[in-house]
Design brief:
The protein has 337 residues and is α+β, with helices and mostly antiparallel strands. The chain contains 13 helices and ten strands. Helix 4 (42-57) packs across helix 6 and helix 5 (63-72) crosses helix 6. The protein is globular, with a radius of gyration of 22 Å.
């Protein structure tokens, strides 16, 4: 039983056992039970907003480079503070770590099943991820379940903490509303490797796939969703409350699913691609040809690394925004659909 679960068992109104006795029996310190977290300061929120924007542009920057970039922008920080805030936000630099094949005995990890697989139809592969959402006062975490082939967001939830419950709820909603996929892909975060989350998939016979440690390209389409969401919605607004954040995010995701055309989907919306609808876009090809062109093959990790190196060969970095230049073309930071 986790520390949080044991703390929740303490009953202040128990007539027989005092708080001292309950804490002793549950093996938790009284100071831990009485502790109430202090709200995040406005200055920390400002730094976290800057870190979030910078991380979208350069996810390979660690705490040292983040400190250098923030100081150039006139924000006084040190490495200890940046490292602490990045840990709160749940972000870390993408790099090859030593001994990555060594796992905790209780940490169940599944192999990556999408390598070399052509993903051609809805409900063939789903994926999920969590991101940090800044607000005017505080922040929330957002989880989304996406259909890989159509890019449609099937379910989402927000939470003020990184518990597993909100991820399980999003998964259950997607399964209840849209059936089940053949393969479900996620990263190796503790929320997605928890027994409650995995049980929902295993009992339905869904094959489970997990990204390589630190490999964001293994789940690239939902990473692109986060970039589009933040630059087109979140960074343009300062939500005053969690309720306002939910409304804003929900409105944008509805727009994304039902109205926003994707070039990779022959300018269909994710909803149209998921339902197999053909629209009068740039190409009047038959539906089966559209399906073939929209097939999304995955690649071995070595070519993925080459692609990442090509994408980030030339990056214009700025706290207020970022421009990204690919080899042979020019593109400004924003939606990468």
């Amino acid at each position: 039983m986790s520390s949080a679960e044991r703390r929740s068992l303490v009953d202040r109104a128990d007539p027989r056992l005092s708080i001292v006795a309950q804490c002793r029996l549950l093996k938790i310190a009284r100071s831990t039970w009485y502790y109430r977290p202090a709200p995040v300061s406005a200055d920390d929120l400002r730094v976290m907003r800057a870190l979030d924007e910078q991380y979208l542009a350069t996810p390979f920057y660690g705490a040292r480079r983040m400190v250098a970039v923030l100081r150039r922008a006139g924000i006084a920080v040190n490495r200890k503070r940046v490292r602490r805030l990045m840990r709160i936000m749940g972000i870390e630099a993408i790099y090859q770590k030593p001994n990555t094949s060594r796992r905790h005995p209780a940490h169940k990890v599944y192999p990556y099943l999408l390598r070399g697989l052509a993903i051609e139809r809805p409900n063939q592969v789903w994926c999920a991820d969590i991101t940090y959402v800044p607000m005017a006062q505080g922040f929330v975490y957002l989880v989304a379940v996406m259909d890989w082939a159509s890019r449609r967001v099937l379910a989402w939830r927000t939470s003020i903490g990184m518990e597993t419950d909100f991820c399980v709820e999003a998964l259950q909603e997607a399964l209840d509303r849209y059936g089940q996929p053949e393969i479900f892909n996620s990263d190796q975060g503790v929320q997605f490797t928890s027994a409650a989350f995995l049980e929902e998939l295993e009992t339905r016979g869904v094959r489970i796939s997990m990204d390589g440690k630190g490999r964001f390209l293994d789940n690239i389409f939902i990473e692109r969703l986060w970039r589009s969401l933040k630059y087109e919605e979140i960074f343009l607004k300062a939500y005053d409350s969690v309720a306002e954040a939910r409304r804003g995010i929900g409105a944008w995701l509805t727009f994304y699913n039902d109205e926003r055309p994707h070039q990779a989907l022959d300018y269909r919306t994710p909803r149209e691609a998921y339902l197999g609808t053909v629209t009068c876009g740039y190409d009047a090809a038959p539906a089966e040809q559209l399906g073939q062109r929209c097939a999304l093959p995955t690649y071995p990790q070595a070519p993925q690394q080459q692609e990442k190196d090509s994408i980030y060969l030339k990056v214009g970095v700025g706290i207020g925004g970022a421009s990204l230049v690919r080899d042979g073309e020019h593109a400004t930071g924003g939606s990468l659909s």
